[in-house]
Amino acid sequence: MDQHDEKIIDAEESYGLSTRLFDEVLDAIEADDAPAIDAALEPLHAADIADLIEQLNTRDRRALLQLWPNGVDGEILSELDENLRDEVIAQLNPDQLAEAVRDLESDDVVDLVEYLDAPQQEAVLDALDASDRVAVEKALAYPEESAGRLMQVEVAKAPEHWTVGEAIDFLRSDIALPDQFYHLVLVDPRMRPIGQATLGRILSSARATPLKDILEETFITFNVNDDEGDVARAFNQYHLISSPVVDSDDRLVGVITIDDAMIVLDEEHTEDMLRLAGVGENATISDSVFETVKQRFPWLFVNLITVNIAALIVGLFDQTIAAYVALAALMPVVASMGGSAGTQSLTVAVRAIATNDLTASNAWRVIRREMFVGLLNGLVFAVVMGAVGTFGYGSALLGLTLALAMLINLVVAALAGVLVPVVLDKLKLDPALASGTFVTTTTDMVGFFAFLGLATVILL
Amino acid sequence: MDQHDEKIIDAEESYGLSTRLFDEVLDAIEADDAPAIDAALEPLHAADIADLIEQLNTRDRRALLQLWPNGVDGEILSELDENLRDEVIAQLNPDQLAEAVRDLESDDVVDLVEYLDAPQQEAVLDALDASDRVAVEKALAYPEESAGRLMQVEVAKAPEHWTVGEAIDFLRSDIALPDQFYHLVLVDPRMRPIGQATLGRILSSARATPLKDILEETFITFNVNDDEGDVARAFNQYHLISSPVVDSDDRLVGVITIDDAMIVLDEEHTEDMLRLAGVGENATISDSVFETVKQRFPWLFVNLITVNIAALIVGLFDQTIAAYVALAALMPVVASMGGSAGTQSLTVAVRAIATNDLTASNAWRVIRREMFVGLLNGLVFAVVMGAVGTFGYGSALLGLTLALAMLINLVVAALAGVLVPVVLDKLKLDPALASGTFVTTTTDMVGFFAFLGLATVILL
């Protein structure tokens, strides 16, 4: 991958920052060498500078911002992790901040300020022109994570009865156009979007062609209140490049482009992964130790409670264990296999729900399928553990106990793995929300109870 | 979300298929009612039809294809899960197949045939025009999952010395242009791309403006051999819409557009999630029971071996457990808390490596940070479990044992969670590759050994 022109990307890395450049900047910070910092950062893309700022520790970050006071512009602020934006903006004085945000498009300003503290938000809004400020404040009135917040209000549009020639003349006239646009949106007299044509198609059609004849086949509009995650998944499902956004009267109020949708899809994935693992959804490696503990503590605490309940279950069988100590060594085998199988089944189900592949229409079929998968894997591992018990631990009855417990727990694991997210989804909760903890709790408890209970019956 | 024109999307669902429509199709299949199937499916987007085909069971799927013989077109085939394509294509006769693929762009045909069996691939290639066939065969010569396979060969390009006026005249002349394009790529006399201008910018600039003066600021080219995952992440990092692809002589050979990059990014995320859970990377809920068992068995087997080793560790302490049976109940608490904390730390690290936020430059800092997080969480949970041991199980020494083991295992968990993916990445292996199994194995073994070892020293 090469990058020409003004932006340079290091060839050694697949993309982004090189270790060499990072070290150069560190050295320049150490040496208080402002020109060297400028020379190193100036050629970089804003996204890479933001990554670099995120990778520095707090002390170096502060030093960098002091040595490079006019370097941080609106684009870099936009690219920064939300958690760091406050910190960086707090270090800019009002003039620097005004200068930084002035050139951004409305959707980027919204993205920048929506999670800032009230005084910082005010400071940024004060730096905008009156008309931009109105646009941003209007966007902020839409719900968080909605299409209204994601859209840009700058739209290239035309009346529905126009021809290609009229459209070209219009676009080539002196009107203000968005920085980036890919479609001309056709609107009816009441400003309702009725279709859109790509610029490429407009350019390659005869002047007399009505725009209505060259509209794109797939045309989807979003409502300002639509969830941004649904918007992003629709972009991916239907290969949209840009789509109009309408208000409650179906009037055109903005447009969402695929680059923003791609970022949202990326974030949604990350949130799913983090939630599955019981980590706060905005967790990043640039969070402080204290923030990180706060993010992770709650689900560890839930886990602590559930696993102590599992311990009580084990405690019920203390006489069995006292009589047959090998059970203590083998009960984690049954529980752990259940946990692994449950996590497998869970992960596939969470993905399938996110992509609308697992719905009410096929839930029963999928549940049945998982049960068979659990049964088959359970049978194989029952045979293996039966052999381990019989030959490794010298007791055919122990082998039988292991085999039966393994079979039961793998079927339960497969079922729990699909049922937990399906039920959460049915309850309108996030299917990924700490499902992992629920599933492993189930497999721990069932694993211990089945194994030790069977042992009590079979071995004693 | 509304969709007008030819494609209809149900308003009740966020997007995609409704349960009602699904049931309608099922009823029509049951009733052998071909016109009803046609009426139900005809208005749908190809992506939704593919989803529907995926959600049917094998018998219904076969019935549908027989009742709707000319319905499956190239777009639907492109949208189908790879695992199902063979099955569906096998049911089409050569004429139907030829008809289906004829209108696809070269990159879609490549995507369609790359993982087909040789005879099926041959059948599709035979259906193409000679020139399309050459383009597809050339693309298939590039490595799997490379930029060369992802790109389309149809490019809108112009000599570097042209003006806006010349470009517009050229685009409006009778030349063949790609179906969808957003940029005009400028090339030097040796066909090396030197920049690109958006159609919007070209349309809104004066005729005499040299194209060189309105090039996009960020310009990145990819090599045909670049990994498609890196390409997708670069699109997301730099907000690219389309980017040229060059061969080893830096000559323009194709272009990649963001909609394809978005699909790749989505797939990469899914693969990461599935790998973390120890599931085959292409697993979907439409796989058969047998395929699913095959995908999940290997890592369950690895887990079986490691957890049996952990059982041997427990076995070393059988006399301690025999003397103090409560240990058997409490040892899973220590192991499970370690597993949960390790999974949290692992998930954040795997994401950070995927987004280039965790690199050699800051690895030590992140490792140190995780250690502190583990230490802090460990201290809190040590106090809690110390209390549980002292008051719940009536032994202060047991409480002390629990507290120390908990502290040790949470620090180890935090370290393992970040070290396992960092080391895998350093070894050029996928950091997500069954890291979960490695981490929980570590925390199981350390948890059991620390707890039972300390118990032997403190309690006996």
TrEMBL record, chains A, B:
It comes from Ketogulonicigenium vulgare (strain WSH-001). It is found in: Cell membrane; Membrane. Residues 215-271 form the CBS domain. Acts as a magnesium transporter. This is Magnesium transporter MgtE. Pfam families: CBS (PF00571), MgtE (PF01769), MgtE_N (PF03448). It is a multi-pass membrane protein. Belongs to the SLC41A transporter family. Homodimer. The chain crosses the membrane at residues 297-317, 323-350, 371-394, 400-424, 436-459.
